[in-house]
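Dear colleague,

Thank you for sharing your sequence with our group. We've completed the structure prediction you requested, and as agreed, I am returning the results in plain text so they can be pasted directly into your records. Please verify that the sequence below matches your submission; if there's any discrepancy, let me know and we will rerun it promptly.
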Amino acid sequence: MNPAAAVSRRRLLAAGIGAGLVPVVYAQHAAQAELAPDLVAAVAAFARGAPVREGRVTLEIAELVDNGNAVPVTVSVHSPMTAADHVAAIAVFNERNPQRDVFTARLGPRSGRARVSSRIRLATTQRLVAVARMNDGSCWSHTVNVIVTLAACIEGEG
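Please find the predicted structure tokens below.
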């Protein structure tokens, strides 16, 4: 095989892989940019003015929910949970429920693991944002889109 041809194939493969990642990176930034202003404000208030970066947080929730009345959700944060480096608080926010704050959990180094679970109600298809505030003031997040087929949190008429 011609060495020049092998190099060309490698470059072509690398370019193809790189081009495939562009839509993924763009989609992540677009999802953050399109968040509702009141959701952005709620996250900013929790972050106390610190920039919120993507990473360290895992929001576990089904992406397709049949019934929005009791949806299991778990948030975990990668942290050693020591006195010098631990999660101070975890919060979950939603895009379309009547109230933006779903729940907030306060943690400390004695918590052992930075992991909380609950069941929540979802009014309709929407994005959820989990944010962790660390003891050093930094904030980390994870955003998930959830499709809800049977809505909850809707007040009836009459």
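Summary note from our side: Residues 53 and 145 are 18 Å apart (CA to CA).

Kind regards,
the structure core
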